[in-house]
Amino acid sequence: MSAAMTNRDQLATHNQNIRLVDAQKRFGNHLAVKNLNLEIIDRELLVVLGPSGCGKSTTLNLLAGLERPTNGQIYFGNEDVTKVPAEERNVSVVFQSITLYPHKNVQENILFALKLAKVPRDVQEQRLRETARLLGIDRYLSRRIHQLSGGERQRVAIAKALVKRPRLFILDEPFSSLDAELRRELRGEIVRIHRELQTTMLFVTHDQEEALSIADRIALMKQGELVQLGPALDIYEKPATSWVASFVGPHRINLLDVELGVDGDQPYVQTPAGRLLIERPIFNRVQQAASSQRVMLGLRPEFSGLSASATPGHSLPVEVYTRQHLGNEVLYHVKTDNITLRAVVPATQHFQFGDLVNFEISWNQALWFDSTSGQLLHAPSLRDGAGEQQPKAAAGIV
């Protein structure tokens, strides 16, 4: 074996990954998980993301052994654990509802499972010290649970799960009951803990901001199916479908049914609010990928702009309808007679309700989808020279 081979390579050689193979789970007539094929890479932090009812929790229950698949197999490395009971899988789960013993103190809660398993006392004490330090709860070990804040209780619940040194550590929407500031703090802690422990983690959430902020990779589910799997930035930049583009992103994407056309030598996009001129190279790439002239145009608000003064032939006139202040930015909803659009601009640009302004598009950040299937036709890379954010006066209306 080459000395240059990384630990990840060595682990992959020994096949330590966790796999769901054609996994299916049916509850009566309801198919909660449909032929799921998912591989969790050893030591990664995988986030399972999706709306309520998409099969996230059922998937984690299958992995933890809390549910048995109707069909399919589950492998931990080379071992088929499909019928292995939960207590023999070495999986720890932290649920949304914090499960701690109120009559025990913090130390007793953390060590409870190790004592049941008759782990030697010196090993218990070593793991307690390491885990308490990792979670920053050293000074709380003698406290009762009712003496802790919500965030401190969640840290104890995580410590209680991690002290067992699980093969797979699952967190099921663990921060959803906490306030926004504490959620952000604990998300950062999860990333740090994962880096230090290098254990395999599965984080389940419906919050796409949470998923984008912590994931090595995201498994995005919809109606029991895996719709896209990949690094967080890849899913944001190249969403597989228009539904993915709508679900993943800091703000809901603008989706417009448009028609491609050429007037003389000038390519254009006909929108419900007017005709937008477009650069020839982008037009050609979209037209080659499309099955017809009708396509769906996706414009993320964070790459759109508003301007008080119009450049003739390079702006779409709209009216300010609502606004939301986001610190140093403002999210505006603007409208025409036919459509409503969203744009995020710096807070230094301030518009009043009813103001007539100009909606600006950067074609270098536009996404294009098939109008029937919703499948992605074309997306630029936002991390190379061709996809760097350009000045937003890049569209025209004629």
Helix content: 25-40%
Treating each run of at least 4 consecutive H or I residues as one helix, how many helices? Answer: 10
Q: Globular, elongated, flat, extended or rod-shaped: what is the shape? A: elongated
The tally of beta strands, per DSSP, is 22
List the SSEs and their pairings.
Elements: H1 7-13, E1 18-27, E2 30-40, E3 45-49, H2 56-64, E4 71-76, E5 79-80, E6 91-94, H3 106-116, H4 121-135, H5 150-162, E7 168-172, H6 180-197, E8 200-205, H7 208-214, E9 217-222, E10 225-230, H8 232-237, H9 242-247, E11 254-263, E12 266-271, E13 274-277, H10 280-289, E14 294-299, E15 304-307, E16 316-325, E17 329-335, E18 340-346, E19 356-361, E20 367-370, E21 376-378, E22 396-397
Parallel strand pairs: 3-8, 3-9, 6-7, 7-8
Antiparallel strand pairs: 1-2, 1-4, 4-5, 9-10, 11-12, 11-14, 12-13, 13-22, 14-20, 15-19, 16-17, 16-19, 17-18, 20-21
Helix pairs in contact: 3-5, 4-5
Structural features, described:
The chain has 398 residues and is α+β, with helices and mostly antiparallel strands. It has helices at 7-13, 56-64, 106-116, 121-135, 150-162, 180-197, 208-214, 232-237, 242-247, 280-289, and strands spanning 18-27, 30-40, 45-49, 71-76, 79-80, 91-94, 168-172, 200-205, 217-222, 225-230, 254-263, 266-271, 274-277, 294-299, 304-307, 316-325, 329-335, 340-346, 356-361, 367-370, 376-378, 396-397. Strands 21-20-14-11-12-13-22 form a 7-stranded antiparallel sheet. The protein has a 6-stranded mixed sheet with strand order 6-7-8-3-9-10, sandwiched between helices. Strand 20 (367-370) and strand 21 (376-378) form a beta hairpin. Helix 4 (121-135) packs across helix 5. The longest helix has 18 residues, at 180-197. It starts with 6 loop residues before the first helix and ends with a strand. The model is unreliable at 1-14 and 385-398 (pLDDT under 50).
